[in-house]
Amino acid sequence: MPTPKVYRRPDSRWWWISRTAVEPDGTSRRLLFSGKALGLSVEAHTRDEAQRAVDSRYRIAPAPTGIPGTIGWLRDEALASGARRGTTAPTFKELRNALNHLAAAFGETTALDSLDRRTPRAMQNRIVTGGGSPSTANKVCRHIRAAFNWLIDDGLATSNPFTRFHPLPSASHGPSHLDIASLRRFLDVVDSCPSEPLRRMVRLSLYTGLRRCELLDLPRDAIDLAQRRILVANIKRRDRRRRWLPVIDEVAAHLAWFVERTGCDFPLRICCADHYSRQVKALLRAAGVPESLHLHSLRHTFVTHALAQGIPAWRIKDALDHSSITVTEGYAHTMPEAVNIRYGFEET
Predict the structure, then answer these.
(1) How far is the C-alpha of 151 from the C-alpha of 69, rounded, in Å?
(2) pTM confidence score
(3) Can you list the positions of beta strands (E) in 68-186?
(4) 125 in Cβ contact with 97 (< 8 Å)
(5) Domain range summary for the chain, segments of one domain joined by +
(6) Closest Cα partner for 230 from 217, 215, 245?
(7) What ranges in 45-88 are assigned the alpha helix state H?
(8) Are 20 and 61 contacting, i.e. CB atoms less than 8 angstroms apart?
(9) Which strand (E) or helix (H) includes residue 138?
């Protein structure tokens, strides 16, 4: 597939990306989309910087090289389609892993026509017997279903064997949030950490409830310290809309420290997302909390404590970019003790 090019429009503050897609019949068509999803603004990036960012982002999708109609071909086409759609990096990684699971289970040269309605259950059983959790098996099937749907939308496939797969019930192996006692032990460990950027980043994760990529990829121009708010991109939505979130004084102080310590466009990017998750996991283990807790448990803790304070669920839903109130309620857990953490919402 030809290398994408960037160019500037006089009426836009974003660099625009031009790609050429080659259809199965040999014809080509031009695809245009804004670099807003990648944060490539004209004011902050030169043409060369934008071109390097685009090359780094879209060259991870290999050109289709498999035999048409096989699982290997499905993987290549789906990855290329995901890159054209501007899929976020975490979602793209999960999609690639799911398709690799499918190829490992049935073979890259297996014809797609041989897959039927029994295939999802066989896929789930293979993952669970291999040591994976039921939630992982369900997530893999959902990504494979999305890959088939993309091929159907592009006119490359006519049926989807994963359309009506039955999710496996997820078993709870431990708590998903930090109670008051565990939270105090965890914060004591965090305060003793020698890395000041990590200490401040963990506090931000706990007091804002934001996803790791939403924090690490927070642009400098999205931090409004004067009005105590930040502008966060909705990384889970295709419309790429952004939302303003109020922050408390302690969060604003941490943000000001990151803004002042560096002059880069992303002052909170202290490391990659996976390395940040591993660091938080190490701190949780040092605090002696249950092994089931991890970085995303801080988001569960945020929701649980905020609801215990009487904050309306719909406000938390909007703040955390959940798709529905049901998702927000799924993050809430029983918290009988008094809560002393404030999150900056207005009292109602």
Answers:
(1) 11
(2) 0.57
(3) none
(4) no
(5) 1-59, 63-171, 180-330
(6) 245
(7) 47-58, 71-84
(8) no
(9) helix 134-153
Distance CA 120, CA 30 (A): 35
One-letter amino acid of 24: P
Nearest to 300 by CA among 312, 278, 282, 316: 316
- What is d(CA 72, CA 64) in angstroms, rounded to the nearest whole number? 9
With respect to CATH, is domain 63-171 assigned 1.10.150.130?
Answer: yes
pLDDT tens for the chain, 348 residues: list them: 467 788 887 778 888 888 776 655 666 767 777 777 777 888 888 888 888 877 776 654 444 556 778 898 888 888 888 877 777 767 888 888 899 999 989 988 899 889 998 999 999 999 888 878 888 889 999 999 989 988 888 788 888 999 888 888 866 567 888 888 999 999 999 999 999 999 999 999 999 999 998 899 899 999 999 999 999 887 665 555 778 889 989 999 999 999 998 788 889 989 888 899 999 999 999 999 988 889 999 999 998 888 888 888 888 888 888 877 877 877 776 543 433 444 444 443
d(CA 125, CA 222): 45
Residue 16 in tokens: 């625009």
d(CA 65, CA 76): 7
Angle at 65 between CA 123 and CA 95, to 5 degrees: 40
Residue 171 CA to residue 167 CA, distance in Å, equals 12
Burial of 26 (0-12, 13-18, 19+ CB in 10 A): exposed
Which amino acid, 114?
A: S
- Beta-bridged to residue 231, according to DSSP, are 244
- Nearest partner of 197 among 264, 278, 258, judged by Cα: 258
Give the contacts of 327 (CB within 8 A, at least 6 positions apart). Answer: 317
Q: Which two tokens stand for residue 36?
A: 């807003």
Domain spanning 180-330, CATH class = mainly alpha
